[in-house]
């Protein structure tokens, strides 16, 4: 399993590494730290490119990557790469596709409040085009331990099932609890809507319990407030948990498109969020519902 980390030599890059380390702990995973530099082309500030300029730029990037690798604890496999692309997001997506990464991990943009996230240009590019799930670490993210709980935000629209599948798989692979939440922005007097939301979450919980056969603890809650942000803030959050959401129904097949609800959640969440592409299919080697015999058979057939 491999996680592509969008690294920059600042707090954003360090937060991304801390989140990627949390994902990698307890798994046979490799972190791939990626720095993206602009390609040589006529519209650059220095053109034709000079060896001195290119060497200085690449040399500085290498120094920053060495510093980034040093932030990763011993025992976690780590590689580093300088990639040339027109945008940071483009470079990360290309690297993730080539390495068949399980996830792209980034920090939040500058200007975010402490322990909160905001969407900058890099996140915006990824969250509207990536074919790989994207995880965003809030500012100041420093988990106290391994990932402790997976929270899956569910709804009635397309995309919720994709996120739920990833949440179930993640919780099973890590043997940690799964929490299912349904968020409502409504007047507090709307008891019928609250009851329907709780019933919907409970039905999903029962379906999940039947699938996991008691292997993990599964709970379900319907949170409400005058706004989505207020509903999020009514829930308790463990500093080592992860929230998983799906893409908007507007997303192209197998691509991300962050919807308005997820965007509102992101602004107030004190924990990382993972956004899953629409109609995302979990690779068999990451899926606990695929047996070792099936994986071996597929490998054998592929060799033919």
From TrEMBL:
Organism: Lysinibacter cavernae
SUPFAM superfamilies: Adenine nucleotide alpha hydrolases-like
Membrane spanning stretches: none
Protein name: Nucleotide-binding universal stress UspA family protein
Family that this chain belongs to: Belongs to the universal stress protein A family.
Gene3D superfamilies per UniProt: 3.40.50.12370
Domain UspA: 4-137, 148-277
Signal sequence, renumbered to the chain: none
Classification of source organism: Bacteria, Bacillati, Actinomycetota, Actinomycetes, Micrococcales
